[in-house]
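Quick note —
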Amino acid sequence: MRVPPVDEDILDKIGPWSEVKLEIIRKYAKAYSQIFANRPGLAHLYIDAFAGAGRHISKRSGELVPGSPAIALDIEPPFREYHFIDIDGLKIQLLEDIAKQRKSVVVHHGDCNVVIQNELLALLRYDQFKRGLSILDPYGMDLKWSTVDGLAKTGTTDVFINFPVMDINRNALRVDPDKISSDQSARMTSFWGGDTWRNEFYAKQAQIPLWGDPKVEKNSDNDQVVSAYVKRLKEVAGFRFVASPMPMRNSHNAVVYYLLFASHKPVAQKIVEEIISKYR
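Predicted structure written out below.
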């Protein structure tokens, strides 16, 4: 696919961990599309909720790297429909440049939570023989639980989720909960789907002297936080199969985010686990 020239100042710069994520998505999307190409009675959709400009700049090489929308459009056999969503008007223009020759592509300008819940969930109805692969790759805690839950309840959709543990720890799971701003607390509640995270990740610590009030402090690490979210994907949203979270680490070996995958089909989890195992 020919990619038009672009002002590189608009593009996101991504690290090697994000390039690995894109490769994992590419391999699964190809396998997914091949499966549905052999089932002509089913229409399969590709949904990219935080699509960006469709390409990035590699921090490692300085070169242009295809983003998930460009990767999806190059996959053969093609998906029946593509839905790319972004809230940034400049990035939307670049997405439209990439997609303008494809009648199967719809570019949505707006909040992906609103677009998915108000427009796209209706396209994923089981009784209309629609199936979907959704890429939920937020920049931080911008993905609402209601969006994830809505996709799960269709019973038709596989999802990749960027679980933004670094943003969560910096802004919403401070060691001292009194230091969490009301805005960040509200973001976390929206992302988590309720305020149960407060009891999940904080506990009253013993106070000395004995007559002092107990102090509430964080009592969880990254693995516990992501495991609790995976549990919600299964028990609250209703995804039957969730792959083991894959930690994505930066050059300092710190976990930037976890890549999650959820589905209603065991074969989907099996395929993803086999792909991810090569990068763990």
